[in-house]
Amino acid sequence: MPYLAHIALVVRDYDEALTFYVGKLGFTLVEDSYQPAQDKRWVTIAPPGAAAGATTILLARASNELQARHAGDQAGGRVFLFLATDDFDRDHAAFTAAGVEWVRAPVTHDYGRVAVFADLYGNLWDLVQFADGHPAAA
Q1: Tens of pLDDT along 87-138?
Q2: Residue 119, Cα to own-chain centre: how many angstroms?
Q3: Which of 107, 79, 96 is nearest to 25 (CA)?
């Protein structure tokens, strides 16, 4: 059965992206392999605690000017990625302490508690704890 294996996220530099995602957000480095035929690295990361085989983010270094212009604007200024948590307050506090830039303060909606942050390139992310009973709740 088909499944979503990776989501590509255009970055300017692998190592600065790893510093943010692994260093500040606590993501796990799943793979970092050099691909000599393309002179690129295959770098995948996953949120902390992600199950083996879960969808990962492929950090895709921009390889031309057009791609470089879209690093940080892959969704035209909309929230692009949704990071679900089982403890909103814990993760919000940890990200704040790590220097993450919050674009929208925490609010509670019928679907759960959410705040919006920007990654190092300006992509917008939701940090969300879904309400009990919501279809996306863990």
Answers
A1: 999 999 999 999 999 999 999 999 999 999 999 999 999 999 999 989 988 7
A2: 8
A3: 96
Shortest CA distance to 117 belongs to which of 25, 8, 12, 4?
A: 25
Residues belonging to the chain: 138
Q: What is the dihedral of CA 108, 96, 61, 84, to 10 degrees?
A: -30
How far apart are the C-alpha atoms of 107 and 85, rounded to whole Å?
Answer: 15
| Alpha carbons 9 and 1: distance in angstroms, whole number | 24
Here the tokens at position 6 are 């990776």
Q: For residue 24, what is the DSSP state?
A: I
Give the predicted TM-score (pTM) of the model.
Answer: 0.93
